[in-house]
Amino acid sequence: MRCNTVKELVQFAYGLYANGATLTPQPLQISGGPGWIDADRFDIEARADGNPREEMMAGPMLQTLLEDRFKLRVHREMRERPVYALTVARSGFKLQPLEEVCLPPDPCGVVNMRSNGQNMTLDVHAMSMADFSGSLGLDRPVLDKTGVSGVFDFRLEFVLDGAAPGNLFGSHDPTPSGDGAGPSIFTAIQKLGLKLESAKGLVEFLVIDHVEKPSGN
Q1: What is the bridge-based pairing of β-strands 194-210 and 73-88?
Q2: CA nearest 76: which of 86, 85, 63, 65?
Q3: CA-to-CA distance for 189 and 140, rounded, in angstroms?
Q4: Is the preceding peptide bond at 174 cis, omega within 30 degrees of 0?
Q5: How far apart are CA 93 and CA 149, in angstroms?
Q6: Can you name the residues that pair with 79 across neighbouring β-strands?
Q7: DSSP category for residue 28
Q8: What is the spatial distance between Cα 118 and Cα 85, in angstroms, rounded to a whole number?
Q9: How far apart are CA 141 and CA 162, in angstroms?
Q10: Can you tell me the distance from the alpha carbon of 135 to that of 12, in angstroms, rounded to the nearest whole number?
Q11: Which residues have a Cβ under 8 Å from the Cβ of 20 and sit 6 or more positions away?
Q12: Where are the domains of the chain?
């Protein structure tokens, strides 16, 4: 792993690949720690015994490395924060659940993203509303409040709205994009019978209690 900050490494280890099996798309909310965890960068070279999956190395095994070499200590807590609530629109939910469960090698819960300039296309396969809400890269966490069960296939087409760096798809302005080229994600999602609403909710935070700069090898 090359040129990563400690905060980026923590995001990999305790957020994106925390369960050692699948990518968790919604970024982990991290707080605490000294300023250098956002500034200093590190190269990590490590060799694992056997043939572990990449997700295991980037998740649980990286957790062990950080706790050993960086003396990292963390805890998790819930905090109330501004969020988006994913709800069913007044027009009603438009999607039908898949009847067959995914079987290998056909993966469940997959989002394929394509871009053409500012134009974005998301092809979603066999994903629940809870997982879909977690995959939306907005400026706030998205909580699933639809009450809808099952998994779904669908396509979502929208235009980026010039969001600030770090916000994948946009910010809180639920209007068409400024150049008139197409709908924002807030407008496009309504075609699925869904709506994104500003709200407050409990969000999980990973709090850094202690961390030290490691010595070189």
Answers
A1: antiparallel
A2: 63
A3: 16
A4: no
A5: 12
A6: 203
A7: P
A8: 25
A9: 18
A10: 15
A11: 53, 55, 56, 59, 60, 61
A12: 4-79+203-210, 81-202
Place of tokens 């019978």: 193
What token pair was written down for 151? 């998994």
Which pairing describes strands 41-42 and 4-5: parallel, antiparallel, or unpaired? antiparallel
Burial class (CB in 10 A: 0-12, 13-18, 19+), 45: exposed
Q: Whole-angstrom Cα distance, residue 201 to residue 217?
A: 44
Token pair in block for residue 6:
């400690």
Token couple for 194? 């869904």
Both tokens assigned to 202: 């409990």
Phi, psi at residue 187, to the nearest 5°? -80, -45
**Going by C-beta distance under 8 Å and a sequence separation of 6 or more, which residues neighbour residue 36?**
6, 213
Distance separating alpha carbons of residues 145 and 214, to the nearest angstrom: 43
Contact (Cβ atoms closer than 8 angstroms) between residue 196 and residue 173: no
- Please give the C-alpha separations between residue 50 and each of 46, 53, 57, 128, in angstroms, as whole numbers: 13, 10, 11, 34
Per-residue pLDDT of the chain (217 residues; tens, 9 = 90+): 999 999 999 999 998 888 887 666 677 899 999 999 999 999 999 888 889 988 899 999 999 999 999 999 999 999 999 999 999 999 999 999 998 777 666 667 778 888 888 898 999 988 899 889 988 878 888 999 999 999 999 999 999 865 433 445 544 444 444 455 689 999 999 999 999 999 999 999 999 999 999 987 7
Query: The tokens of 209 are what?
Result: 């209690």
